[in-house]
Amino acid sequence: MTRRSVVTVVALAVLTVIGLTYLLFGVAQLDPIHRSMTMTVDLARSGGLLDHSQVSYRGYPVGRVRAIELRPGGVRVTVRVDEGTRIPVDTDVVVADLSAAGEQYIDFRPRSDHGPYLADGARIAQRDTATPIPFSQVISDVTKLTDQVDPRQVTVVVDEMQHAFNGSAPDIQRVLDGGDLLLNSLDGVLPNTVRALHNGRTVLGTVSDLRGELARFGGDAKDFTGTLRRADPTARTLLEDSPDTLRLVDDVVRKNGPSVAALLGDLGTTTDVVAMRLPAISQFLPGLTTLGPAATAVVRGDKIQVIADGYPRPTCDYGTPRRAPTIGGSPPPPINRYCTQTGPRMQQRGSTMVPRPRGDDTATAPKGADPAQHARQPGHTPDR
User: Fold this and answer.
1) Could you give the angle at which helices 278-287 and 257-276 cross, rounded to 10 degrees?
2) pLDDT tens, 313-344?
3) What share of the chain is helix, strand, coil (3-state, %, to 5)?
4) Exposed, middle or buried, 81 (CB in 10 Å: 0-12/13-18/19+)?
5) Closest residue by Cα to residue 83 from 31, 53, 120, 112
6) pTM
7) Alpha carbon of 234 to those of 157, 206, 242: distances in Å?
8) How many CB atoms lie within 10 A of CB 62?
């Protein structure tokens, strides 16, 4: 062998070793010093996984699927995860797709970022897993959807859309151009728009805080407008008579201007005097409320009727209504009225003081008796 042949053989051997090393460690990912954790995941179905599918943690590769086997009610997937990977126990395991037509892989998606973490031999229950919808079910659901669509109705919709948009391309183009111009204009006034929205938020917040007062104002305004509606005839009459009244007032003011000025000055003095004596007036005016009932007791029609007793003596009030002194006759006495006053000089020897047997209650009116009942006399109508 020549020297050249020896160099060629050595070069081929080196390239073979490098290729095998790449295939074993780069492609097959064989690592004799690599240590991993084994976990099991219970799935309802495989979801397209293979025994070499990738295992990731939030999308980052951390291991591979090692075995898939059946179990009662689903499948059990054994995965190997790189040692030192800290995956929280509170996690979801999802069978996802690398792309629309790519292979499936298992992805750990924790619900929290703190421990405890999954350890070697951990098991994830089926309730914490999710698998993609089978392609057969998708096809079945799409078929059911298309079966519900009436081709004739779809044809009508397409024809109507064709008629609607036929020849409207220039108009649509103008609408799009106008929208583009509008967007450019809004972009130019963006700071002002932002300030307007901010101020509008403040205004709306103030209105929201005053919604109770506004509701009461609305109710009061409704009552006020209802009052105006009911007073419409009076208001119309007032408006019709107002010009004549205003002309009359204008004539009075024009002719009696100095006198009106002097009158207003005197009214100012009078107001000051009344203000100084307001406490006394506030005590006097409530007392006038008792004047009306007292006046009605002595005023009859257009006359004042007063009875004076020159020698007052103790009398007993039986609660009998007063009769006008001008009414003649002698009505029958009431039989159920008794003296309502007490005292050492009242009824010392009256009927109520007569000794009675035990249990006798005839000294007072019977229970439920009518105080206005009179003794009956022939030919007399009781005056109640």
Assistant:
1) 80
2) 667 777 777 777 677 777 787 877 777 666 66
3) 50, 15, 35
4) buried
5) 120
6) 0.35
7) 63, 39, 12
8) 21
